[in-house]
Design a protein that fits this description.
Blueprint: H1 7-14, E1 17-21, H2 36-54, H3 58-65, E2 67-78, E3 88-94, E4 103-113, E5 116-131, E6 149-150, E7 158-160, H4 181-187, E8 192-198, E9 204-205, E10 209-210, H5 212-229, H6 234-241, E11 243-254, E12 263-274, E13 278-289, E14 292-310, E15 313-316, H7 321-328
Parallel strand pairs: 5-6
Antiparallel strand pairs: 1-3, 2-5, 2-11, 3-4, 4-5, 7-14, 8-12, 9-10, 11-14, 12-13, 13-14, 14-15
Helix pairs in contact: 1-2
Length: 335
């Protein structure tokens, strides 16, 4: 048997916590509803609060022990609509599997509806504690925490490419960049859309790497660009059909580290359309290193639309033929 875990580590691994949170107004993009990205932000905030309650807040982990808090996998299923004025009850339950080197938590978000407690979303979050070689730890790690530390978040798959990369500035004016030769090679004949983007410091944390919230932003933006490219720009669909985008589930997993100011090649692939109500897409993200593409993140998201059947009463909209055609017809990347 190893040393007895520090009480803070025991609390982190065993004691559920409940916090009260409110969504940021920034997430109130359509009507009075909060979008999927900010629901994921709430789940992450709940886990951060769990660390604080245990006595291991993220800032102290970095300052005292040289450990960066990194969400490396977040999967969420959305249920009831979350409104901008809601106060959310966030229940975090530790769920570390035996022998795992990652901290695993389930997060349930509840709101009050007409005197009833309603579950609006559920998430599973994996956290790694990334050792920062540039920070000298002021104190030794608390007993029991070492197994969850790592020198690197992952080593993503390497892909050889035949295409010759072109300067970044040639493909950024319109932001939709399927004409980039590297993206063209990645997409081929598949039903996908490509985007290349420089990852600024505002996507990052700990002076160096893109954090999970940055990839949630990438997923949201590449969806927006994809829809515009397919003739389904969000504002046009809102204005002409009264359809509000809705997400039922999402997942993002980090496979390797993406470094500040690297150029991210994102391929967004339509995988299925389900009963003219939902469509699922996959996001794969790459960076170019030493002449090879490195896959640094992957994820999936399921989308649909709501329409207002009566004032403040929303129902799923059924895709018409033109929408199904737009979603299911591959567009060959320009040369």
């Amino acid at each position: 048997m190893g040393p007895t875990p520090h009480p803070a580590v025991t609390a982190l691994l065993e004691a559920p916590t409940t916090g009260r949170l409110r969504p940021l107004f920034e997430g109130n993009n359509i009507s009075y509803a909060i979008g999927f990205k900010h629901i994921n932000y709430l789940a992450e905030a709940a886990v951060l609060n769990h660390f604080r309650e245990a006595g291991l807040p993220a800032g102290a982990l970095y300052r005292r022990f040289g450990l960066g808090f990194d969400v490396i996998d977040i999967r969420s299923r959305l249920g009831a609509l979350l409104a901008v004025d809601d106060e959310v009850e966030a229940v975090v339950t530790p769920a570390v599997k035996g022998g795992s080197d990652r901290l695993r938590f389930t997060v349930e978000l509840f709101v009050e509806r007409d005197g009833r407690r309603v579950r609006c979303a559920g998430s599973t979050i994996l956290v790694a504690l990334r050792v920062d070689g540039h920070v000298k730890a002021a104190e030794p790690w608390p007993a029991g925490l070492e197994r969850f530390t790592t020198a690197r978040l992952g080593t993503g798959e390497r892909l050889e490419i035949a295409a010759t990369p072109r300067p970044y500035g040639e493909f950024t004016a319109g932001r939709g960049t399927s004409a980039d030769p590297v993206l063209s090679e990645l997409i081929g004949e598949t039903n996908a859309f490509g985007w290349r983007w420089r990852m600024g410091y505002f996507y990052c944390h700990f002076n160096e790497r893109v954090q999970m919230s940055g990839f949630l932003r990438v997923m949201e933006e590449v969806e927006d660009l994809f829809l515009a490219d397919r003739g389904l720009a969000i504002k046009e669909v809102l204005d002409s059909r009264g359809w509000i985008p809705v997400v039922t589930q999402s997942r993002i997993e980090l496979l390797d580290e993406t470094v500040m100011e690297e150029e991210l090649y994102t391929v967004y692939t339509v995988e299925s359309v389900f009963k003219t109500l939902l469509y699922s897409t996959r996001m794969d993200c790459y960076v170019l290193r030493d002449g090879q593409l490195v896959k640094t993140a992957t994820g999936t998201i399921t989308h649909g639309y709501l329409h207002e059947a009566a004032p403040n009463q929303w129902e799923m909209a059924e895709f018409d033929e033109s929408t199904v055609t737009a979603l299911t017809t591959p567009r060959k990347a320009a040369a």
